[in-house]
Fold each of these.
Amino acid sequence: MQKKAAIIENPALLKLELLSKGVRLDKSALKSEEIAQALEIGNRVSVPLELDMILPGNVLVNIAVQECLDKDSCYVLKNDNGEFYITNGVAKTRVWIVPPPKFYNQTTSSGALLAKIGRTYGNYLLITPSGACEFLSRDMACKYCDVEAKQTPDKSIDDVLETVEAALKEGAAEYICFNIGYADSEDGGIKQLLPYIKAVKDSFNALICIQAQPPASDEWVDMTYAAGVDSLAYNLEVFDPEIFGLIAPGKKRLVGRDRYFKALARAAKVFPSGAVVSNLIIGLEPVESTLKGIDALAAFGVVPTLPLFRPLPNGELTSYVKLSPEAIAPIFIHLEAALNKNKLSSSWINHFNIVVNAIDAHLFGGQTPVKKNWPSIFSAKKHNKLALNLRRRLRVRATDNNEPTGL
Amino acid sequence: MSQQDYKEDRRVVVDTRPIPLVILAKSYRFIIFLVAAVLFVVIIALPTPAGLGVAGQRALAAFVVCLILWVTRVIPLAVTSLLAIVLIPLLGILDSSEAFSLFGNQAVFFILGAFILAAALMKSGLSSRMALLFLRRFGSTPRSLLIGAMLVPALLSFLMPEHAVAAMMFPIILEVVHSLKLKPLKDNYGQALFLSMAWGAAIGGVATFLGGARNALAVGILKQSTGQFIGFFEWTIAVLPLVIVMLVIAHLIIGRFFPSQITDVKDAVVALENKNKKLGKMSLEERLIGLVMILTILAWVFLGGRYELATIAILAVVALFALQLVEWKDLEEYVNWGIILMYGGAITLGFALEKSGAASWLAKVTITSWAKSPFLVVALLALVSLLFTEGMSNAAVVAMLLPVGLGIGKQYGIDLRIMVFAIAVPAGLGFGLPMGNPPNAIAYSSGYINPRKMLTIGLILDLVAWSVFLIMIKIYWPLINIKF
Ligand code: SF4
């Protein structure tokens, strides 16, 4: 009982719980406008319903709405006269529902629903321009891969630009994040993103992040930065070499674990401090291994992002043991210490709501959460675009290859 | 460069050094222009020193600016040369018609002819047959190939002008480098081969009167002004040890600074064999090009005294066109106009320095204020000649410095033959800059040589050459009866 109450009272622990277990909607919640809007969007886009929510202390979380798998620890969202609460039957806490962005309901000039082109997560607009991934086509898909979601049709540059414009206009996103699968070429797949990056950079003064697989040569890491990317993720997912091969066979066989480290190390030198991140999924490997991974990545200058493993409904990894929030919390405390030790800022991921970050993590220590209103949270720390662009202008230069011999 | 300038086909690198260093590096061009401009203004504004006219002072200012721009390459070498051509009339050093006409120097046309002859050899495939012969003879290992690339031009330069040797060897080395699939600027071995060729030809060129016009010119000036003479063999006996030592040292230095990244050259032999197989039997066109080439080389060797080398080269080019062996569009990709502009401008500037009296004033001032003994006079004169030759034509250095040197030599009671060697020999040994001599320019036109490395290693070799020359004066020459 006490333990359940303690979890509800600590927003960081609650975020962990909600991330891994999701939330069930009470009838009262279904009556609210915000939920109705979210449901409608979910139906139109045909993806499972997810809710963006602010927990006390400005802790931002993206929660899957699903039926309770574990009857003993269910979280239910209730609406009491327009105020939302989350309860686990023992205690309850006030939460704020972030209404889905309005642009979701708009359509592009070609008739595509904007919500199908890009989705916001915190202040990130995530766009997957193409579902192509050679791990999938070669039967080496990552075990956690949401294959169905990946089978999306390619998105045109015009549709992407209209979506970005709408999201920026509404203030629903600050970062435009592109996601791309693996291509068995020197660039590792990044080349496919370049026209989109260029189009967005040419049209908007937006910050761009990408999630991709490491290219075969460091030259492409440099080219990625030169192309206008501000933050980059090469996701390792697990640190343990053996489990890495089991969980991500394509990554192991076609890219190689070493290449992840080398490319991340180069990227950490090339990109601004804290702008290079890599996922280590909590729950897919022993905690000690995750801790070692955090130390190794942070030592390279890479910010580890620690999503919790959420088994896919019919996925291969449903049998994985879920860790309790008390077991997970020390990992985040370790993360915060590792970031401090290596003087790394987590500002690039602070508002990425599907991971727990250092800002959340300090709440594990029991600090009093400060309440702030949506969307003032996002303006807490903005990256200076002018400074970032100036940095790029200074640092990027043509290679000796192209340097004329002086004739 | 910003992302807006980013192009997929453009390779980029991100400078990861601390930002202050990056900013300093980015301001490099601006700083260089500023330094050049300040020095220019200061030299012009200073009171004109005794013994130097206003034109000479201005020529020195133009020279300093061009030297800074050539060495730092903040603008293309060829563009700096164009600047030199316009600065000279602008500053009133020479009138504009004279300044522009100097561009039509025979060395410039010799290089143009050499490029066209090389283009014909390469286009016909004859160069790949020659390269295969060369590789079979010398290419048992990368090292032996490097030795061959230096020794063959060096020995040929004993018999014919070094320009001609470089022109002849250039297509062969280029073919070898292509067959080894070496990347321009990146691969050490490609740079090593071209520098071996250029430096081998230059070093060999000082051994006899046939290697370069400057040697004969120097002896001619000596005879005219003093009646003394240096015979063909006397010259060679005096200089040969230096040539041998310098060839060995140059080879070692190239090996040290350009460690080979390839372990054997068999692939190149196979590639050339395949290419030659595809070419089939030697065509009539190839035979005719070969004949024109042989006749040209013979003319360079036997008629070089009577006619300019450039005249022979251009006549050979005309013969190629008359026999319809090449077409103009075939040549366009081979003729490196940048090198031609660069060389023309450098020659014009060298002439302006000479004609305005700036060069001889500089030499006199340096030597009379520093030289305290006959040996120091010779040492300084050799150094001045070596440094001047990096930016001026070899023959111009001799024509300009030798009268000064002979005057100083008489004053100090030095054997005047020593003064001739001290000026003419170093004048052939400029290794650092493409405009140092035609072999350097021809090798540089390949696009394989990193100019910064060429300058650094070339200057080291310049100093080594100077030291070896001085040791030779002290130890060897007394043995053959050349004494102070
Ligand atoms: S990289 Fe892995 S997770 Fe991403 S699309 Fe390919 S298989 Fe799926």
Amino acid sequence: MSERRMHIHVDQLTMAYGSNLIQQDLDFDVYRGDVFVIMGGSGCGKSTLLKHMIGLYPPAKGEILYDGKSFNRASEQEQFEMRRGWGITYQTGGLFSAMTLAQNTALPLQQYTALGAAEIDDIVAYKLALVGLGGYQDYYPSEISGGMQKRAGLARAIALDPEILFFDEPSAGLDPISSQLLDELILEMQESLGATVVIVTHELASIFAIASNSVFLDAETKTMIDYGDPKILRQQSEHDKVRKFLARGGTPGGGPA
Amino acid sequence: MAGAATPAFRLADEGRRLELSGDWVIEQDCPAFTALRQQLRQAQPTRLACGTEALGDWDSALPAFLLQCHAYCVEAGIDFDTAALPEGTRRLLGLATAVKPHRPSPEPSRSLLEALDLGHRLQEGRKIVRDHLEFIGEATIALGRLLTGRANTRREDFLTFIHQSGPDAFSIVTLTSFLVGMILAYLGAAQLAQFGAQIYVADLVTIGMLREMGALMVAVVMAGRTGAAYAAQLGTMQTREEIDAIVTLGISPMEFLVLPRMVALVLIMPLLVLYANVVGIFGGAIVAAGLDVSFIQFSQQMTNVISFAHLGTGLLKSVFFGLLIAIAGCRAGIQCGRSSAAVGEAATRAVVTSIIYLIVADAAFNILFQELGI
Ligand SMILES: Nc1ncnc2c1ncn2[C@@H]1O[C@H](COP(=O)(O)OP(=O)(O)OP(=O)(O)O)[C@@H](O)[C@H]1O
Ligand SMILES: [Mg+2]
């Protein structure tokens, strides 16, 4: 794969909350068009890594580069422009509870484009339909199911046809069929938008179904212990822990049929 | 097993063998681990095996005891041999020890001496003050952007907050200011009657409400009502990652969340205070009527003392009070932790901080007005 172009480069990253070290010396690349999975046990710092990647927390050490450009050292205007190309869903929702699904999805469009109200309505309707929520425009997040909230979050994330999609456990708490549908949706987005996807997930079925590359964070040594295609890591990782983590799911692609 | 046997342990074989006996069940008075720890400390074995010949029934009490024993053995480098334990206990213990217990990083375990360290406290105090000033500064910048029409603020939000802090607060403001007016009148009447000067109750109530009590009472009510609500709203948004989402959309939470709340409160406060003044003076007039000061006399006396200075000082205060309450509430909400308990703390902090702000500001205003002779 000689034409793989680097998109995100995490450079010697150390993350900490105050003096509470979470992970150190993370160093990996995400290539353009990758579906990149961040794996690891609960509490090892996956969400924390994602929040560093989207610039919410400044690194304790090291840097994250997008197309060679550091987010943290960029000017406010540059940061604004970089963020325009990102779509993000959060582990605990992040939907604005005081706004309807339509208003939620419309917000990025209002923020970053000069579209009129009617045009925005059309795009919102399309995005919601894309995630199977057509007709739910005027519902509030509290009025729809957990799975629907996940998809509504996805609709907001793809509102601006982002270059990079960040997902924090998109399928957690969903039944196997819905989570498979969500996987398919993510792959579909990735292919049709040509986006790079960075995704935090535990779901082995998803990992094998969609991942093209991955990093494994370890809570004990507080660093990444493996990096590569999970299908290969499952057979060939030199770390017992990684093989065990990945073997729990049975055969590759052996998700819900 | 009828007639339960008392649970007990014995350290035998120079501390190398832990003999458990009796029924280790919750209903029984099971020995605490501290006793065993002391004995182990004295014996200092390198290996500890379990003896269970005399062990009867057991439930969670036993693994709970053994878990502490296991932790001590790990710490003291003792090889803890559980082979003789009942199969079930061993499995449960295995599960309980499979994941290492979470240890907070070294920092929180400060010694008493360090905790009392004044230098450290001073530093923390300075940090809090700096945080407050930073927040106020950011809010001011956002306000500037709003005034120049560049802020990212939704009009609907703004109207909602106006409604929440204005009309919705009407009844409680009516009640409190009416009663405060009455209280002022009673307080003054008792003293003034001694000189046969009841008529001056009108002065007292009017000036008292306009200059001081109107603004302060409304502010206290709003701190408890609206300030706490702001903190809870923003705190909940923080726990649900809504604020993260706002930041990553490139929107300033200051403009999007804090500004509409702040402006709503600042606009509403003077109106509420005006209303509270009217109601309070009315309350005072009713009390005065009962003390042989008729409504006509009262209103004549009142119009004599009302001046722009009295009214203006109260209204000026109310604007600042509104600002302070909004800042205290929003700051507590934005800096809220990520749990639901943290939301409660944020609401409490909002109210406590606003009341401190209010009292300090009120004192400062009164000193200032005194110096300026207003
Ligand atoms: N805002 C915060 N402040 C302080 N510590 C935090 C904060 N958020 C997370 N942590 C700590 O950081 C560690 C990693 O948390 P994180 O949420 O990144 O885990 P995770 O890998 O996403 O876990 P999960 O799979 O359960 O979502 C945890 O030990 C947690 O206690
Ligand atoms: Mg997480």
Amino acid sequence: MMYGYAWDLTTPLTYAASILPILLIGLTVTLQAAAAGFALALVLGLVFALLRRSRIKAVALTTAFVVEFLRDTPLLVQLFFLYYVLPDYGITLPAFLTGVIALGLQYSAYTSEVYRGGIEAIPRGQWEAATALNMTRWQTYRDIVIPQMVPRIVPTMGNYLVAMLKETPVLSVVTVLEMLGLANMIGERTFEYLVPLSMVGIIFLLLTLICSAGIHRLEKVLPKAGIPLR
Amino acid sequence: MDWLTYLPSLAQGALVTAWITLASIAIGAALAFAAGIARVEGGRAVSTLALCYTEVFRGTSLLVQLFWLYYALPLVGLSFDPVTTGIVGLSLHVGAYGSEIVRGALNAVPVAQREAARALNFGRVHTLMRICLPQAIVEMMPAFGNLAIETLKLSSLVSLISIADLTFRAQSIRNITLDSATVYTLTLVGYFLMSLVLMLAMRLIERMVRRGAAFPRAAHA
Amino acid sequence: MNKVLAQQPDAASAAAAPVIEFRNVTKRFGALTVLDDFNFAVAPGEKVTLIGPSGSGKSTVLRILMTLEPFQEGQLTLAGIPYHEPNGKGPFRASDRHLHQIRSHVGMVFQSFNLFPHMSVLRNVTEAPAAVLGLSRAEAECRAIDLLRMVGLADKKDHYPAQLSGGQQQRVAIARALAMRPRVLLFDEPTSALDPQLVGEVLGVIRNLASEHDLTMLLVTHEMRFAREVSDRVCFFDKGRIVEEGEPERIFTAPAEPRTREFLQSVLG
Ligand SMILES: Nc1ncnc2c1ncn2[C@@H]1O[C@H](COP(=O)(O)OP(=O)(O)OP(=O)(O)O)[C@@H](O)[C@H]1O
Ligand SMILES: [Mg+2]
């Protein structure tokens, strides 16, 4: 019995059907974590990408190091770090929020690279034209660079969203009750792990297939020339 | 300084991490070539099989796969020790992602190269082994480098199926000492250093492959 | 120099049986019909040039002969061998073995050379004789050096394609095709990808081949002066059919068809 749903162990099929509602509750947590984590990664990644282009050498180099460090160390250990170390310094966050921050941090390292590639792909002539029109650096980013960059980076970003989705089960180790956490709990109580684990796998498979198809469509719909922000 | 006393145990864990990572990269690379080549060159049945493998292992979460294998392998009579389970899980994962790299690089070989091979009456195997793969493999190396780092990072998940790798040791020490900041900082630095070494190694391999494929270093017209 | 090339059947028996024969061949790309009821024959040893506007299907003719493209209707034979097998499967309606046999009589020189970038010049020329014909490395190299000498590149044998000029690459490609001793050699605009100052060296090699060997040659080119010099016959090709054909002198000086005249005016200026 969990969330008011009882399991029925008569056959694997009835078992699967009876725990589906429980896992779907876990799915909403998974989706929320991925959505929040990805939003954080998009913002933080952009900040990193811009800082890395800073004219102040120290800022650019420090950012480069931080990004490299985040990218080369495991999400799981970063998560443990946040989960156990922050409270020692008086910052106590709910497990879900800690998980979201960990996901966002890890993936900001990836997204910052995508932004960087996107910015560098803008031809020099565009920057020069903007300078010739006497635009400020900020105006150039807002009106010229980012609008042209967006359609190019959307597919890659989409792939990272899918990748992040598949990493959310890691949050179960810090007691976030997403799908895998629930499946393990069901397993502990019924001594029958394979059905719940298989179901989680299948749900992930469906989810990623749907997301990939969605990204593919989005890629086709987006105007190649760019999207004006205003 | 307490942190010095943590080092021997962490170093032992790091060795386990290194072993699992390297074994998984090696086995995974073999799987990647098999599946990638099957996708491009195989008949309908073979390429569909390879596609299913790729999609299933790319589409379901690695941690879910590891737990699944952990509980499933003993049921089919293979009472694997966790290390084997970890290596099997990671290898299948590397193989699935790597097969996309292999497929992409093979498809990126210009059609004209295949046509020239056909005009010279090369068979399919010869065209693949002598014309397409040598050109494609050079293109694969940077992506395989990233995948190797990815594998090192993901290997931390095997700590959750009770393998005493670096992450597992860190957890144990933290549970005893409650010295979280020190332990996890050391662990993160440990992974970072291992990543750097792995990156360097992949660069060297890339250079060897480039030389093995005998591409001239500098081109002049 | 003759010994480096295949022995050709004697001219008398050849005149009777064409080495290449298209009979009512139709080739479509989806809805687009590129060859429409196409009839065309080439006698052994003959040097034929196809000229015609862009998109008229000249490359398609060569690519069909090289088994790089299948065709839908009609018959095509090479040295008497039909391309389609009676119970052939797949788009080519022939087994791999059958296609292999056909290809053993044909070679092709591509517009963009298509040398193997990861192999040295020597290796490019020896790879196929060794792997496909089963020659020993030493034999293959012997043959390759002769051919490289013939195209004037023996001293470049250890270079890689990227280290050669376009003209040199194309000459290597010609040697590579000849090393398989084909009866028929196809050239698809062999000089179109070259800088103007490099065209001459490649045409020179082809000209020598044409005058000194009884190799059957089918050329597509936009070099009209060259076509006039080397060909026994020029075919003006338009919209998937041969509009007019004949001796080069006549085609270039007194074309009968208005479309031929128009085309020649546009290219000769
Ligand atoms: N793979 C293909 N798929 C669809 N259409 C094709 C394909 N290859 C060629 N075509 C079309 O077939 C027609 C004939 O092409 P082909 O390359 O034979 O012309 P060509 O006479 O060689 O022209 P050019 O002088 O430009 O080389 C063209 O309209 C071309 O667009
Ligand atoms: Mg053409």
Amino acid sequence: MITTVHNTPDGEPVLRVRGLTAVLDLPTGPATALHELDFDIGAGEILGVVGESGSGKSLTSLAVMRMLPDAARVTAGQILLHGEDLLTKSEKDMRRLRGRHLGIVFQDPLAYLHPLKRVGAQLRESLTVHAATRAQAATRALELLKLVGIPDAEQRIDDYPHQFSGGMRQRVMIAMAVAHNPSLLIADEPTTALDVTIQAEILRVLVRLRDELGTAVMLITHDIGVVEDTCDRVLVMYAGRIAEQAGTGTLLKSPRHPYTRELLRSVPHLNTPLLDRLPAIPGQPPDPRNRPAGCPFHDRCPDVRDRCTREMPPLERVDADPGHSVACWVAPDTPVQIAAPAGGERRTGRPETEVILSVEDVRVWYTSRRWPWSTEVVPAVDGVTFQARQGTAVGLVGESGCGKSTLAKAILGLQPVTSGRLTVAGREWSGADSHQRAALRRTVQMVFQDPYASLNPRMTVGDSIAEPLRNYHLAGRSQLAGAVRELLDQVGLPARYADSYPYQLSGGQRQRVGIARALAVSPKLIVADEPVSALDVSVQAQVINLFDDLRDRTGVGYVFITHDLAVARHMCDDILVMYAGRIVESGPASAIFANPSHPYTRTLLASAPGSGLTKDTGLKPASGTRPTGGCRFRDRCPVGPAANPQRTVCAERDPALDAVGPRHHAACHFAERDDR
Amino acid sequence: MAYYLRRLLGVLATLLVVSLLVFSLLQLAPGDPATVVAGPDATPEQIAAVRANLGLDAPFLSRYGGWLGDALRGDLGTSYTLGQPVTDLIGQRLGSTLQLVIAAMLLMGVLSAAAGVVLATGRNGAVRAAVDYLTTLALSVPPFVSSIILIFAFAVIWQVLPSGGEASITADPGGALRFLVLPALALALPNAAVLARLLATDMRRSLQEEYVLTARAKGASRRRIVWRHALPASLNLYIVQLGINFGNLIGGALVVEAIFARAGIGGLLVDAVTTRDYPTAQAVLLLTVAAAILAQMVSEMVIARVDPRVKARAAR
Ligand code: SF4
Ligand code: SF4
């Protein structure tokens, strides 16, 4: 995906940032949020900006737009757009530049679109505020919707945002941002809230617009895979500073900064050999209020020297490569290779252990009642069968709305099943009396995506963890403190955290508390819904390792719900791919990732970040109404009747989950066999 | 469509419950209309005869059923004390009350919207502080106090407006309006202050929403953001509150009428309750409650029209 950097005719990059420094006014006093940033973006170039929370990447984009929140202000530097310093412009001049020469796309399109205005009206506004006539705006709005690939643009233009899917909304945001062919387009985590297949489509739109319009793009992301697929150059930010800057290929293959290197190593990747443990970076990104002196990374850096704790390393050019610069005292002169570490296939299913979860033909149908006498049935989970064993992890993957979260709720007894049998450690939720339910609740526990929301903010960490112990009378008053200490130790938190409140902890620490709380009752099964997706990339690996360790130590089994296929591949023994309430493919992780059999699984894998964007997966857009009878995937299937009309069997017969290899099943009439 | 039908069914059910409440509360209250109608010197036999005549000796439920049945046919009974049909009594006085409520409603809408926008977005600190002070003041003064203050200021001290009474709106529209200004203001001010505060709070929240950032990123001016983005988003809550406050207005109107010596249905109600004139009291109470409920329903329907998300739910 590497293209040459086009410069504007006068050789000037579109955006040139020099010495950009900004402070945040916090209750505790001003804190440096951005420190002497230097970077350029040329026309037709996509610059990836990678960093964790508090790294300053979003602040940088808002500074360029001159839309910093009230608490932040730029104290030094220049932001040159085509050579003109934006920092010296009046607000009135900036208004003229915003939307015309500068466009921005934010992360969550639903929140960033006005809920009460038609999509077309919002799009036209982008044009009319810059003196387009109503007629011009109307024509151009339609053109733009087509440009970003909204099907039936003529009909959809008068819809409201809530009538659009997440991916379509993001396309609308992009259309608004590029309405005037801006010189610079900023995209701040534009695909983070989206499913992988839609993420790939949106990224393709961005790349295509860059190619067609020659826009300079600043793409802010935390996802290395997205960078790999789309960016020409990458800026790695850490604690408000640029740690390293290089061409994408160089940065991914031979990074020089220890942070970049460790980050790349710690992120699970779909195409590298599996490791027993992820090489996690210890600690967490520094709090902007309280950044360490010297190199901001020194408390986590494996290569730290004396000097690093005292003096801040400047960003310096790497001799061999003019486009490569790094801020580190000891960045080795010879680049590190991100070598594939030894140790091949790691985990296999462990069929010999006890079955702790058995799901047999489970259906969960939601009924919505419009009138007292008529009901509408939505089959959220539609005949699912699988087992989970002690000490193993089952991964549930699939796009939003596929039924995986409903299934998880049913396993936790939070959602009654409509039919079928669901047994946890030999007990069924349905028909259980209050005594049995209490016993079941001890057997299966939950870990949430957002640990903050699940912890009582007014309770100390110790009390939160002790609560289940008290409720189930698992520890007497005198033993409670000891039990809490032990649980904290199990999840790698020092005992002193027992007296802290959730807000005093970082995201990763809170997730550890969430896990400790789940472990308190010694469950046999833990259901975890996206347990690492809200965490910073460098912290994800730590929590993934913690899950691994706990399984080995306690023999607990996991059901992981995740949209991140690389994480699923690393953590899970077995994988279940769900589509439209059904399992379309199941089997050992090794088989599924090596030989995906179902067309849907293959599209998911081809869309996963880091797999390259050039491939067209052939996936058809969802038609809105799901087909019934026959294969539920046939309206979108790249090899089904939508692509091969002679494959009428797909509409006639429901494909059964048949064996395609050892313990490997797929529900498709044209499934690929392992021994193909 | 089904949505509106369901709403309507709900309203009818509420009205039924209210009618039972109104009926039983009055009839179970101590005091006997027969003694009032028969006069102070009546013998027990005379009182019993009057009671039989008025149908008051029938069992409670059959009385309620009879009244409800008549009411559904449009017959609200005859006043015990005045001997006229209740519908006529109300008809004579409804116009006056309606004028007052409508005038107060308009004032409330205009004043609260203007004050709300200034409070939320005003850039002139002094103006904002002044509006803030005035709304706080209006908020803490109930209509009967504001009535007296207004009368004192405009009728007694400056003598620019009449302190009470009314004129026919058809015969003398100008005069009628002059009589309306003070009572309508007295009624509208406290309600407008509540609404203004509410609108301001909600607009401040709207201005924090992410879509405001999108509008800024498009290059939209602050004025445009306030009027085209934040205000429409806050209108929803405002309209709901407008509907609820309409109920307050009706309640307040009955009081304000008394102070400004207007011959509205407020006076009718007060007389009817003190003389145990059940048919009149029941009819007036039921009518005011029905009007309040209706106002809320209308505000909900307006929202269903302006908010596409509610509309989508309504269409289902
Ligand atoms: S300067 Fe020192 S602490 Fe910072 S990254 Fe380099 S080696 Fe590590
Ligand atoms: S059964 Fe047909 S439509 Fe369904 S996945 Fe297989 S090929 Fe595609």
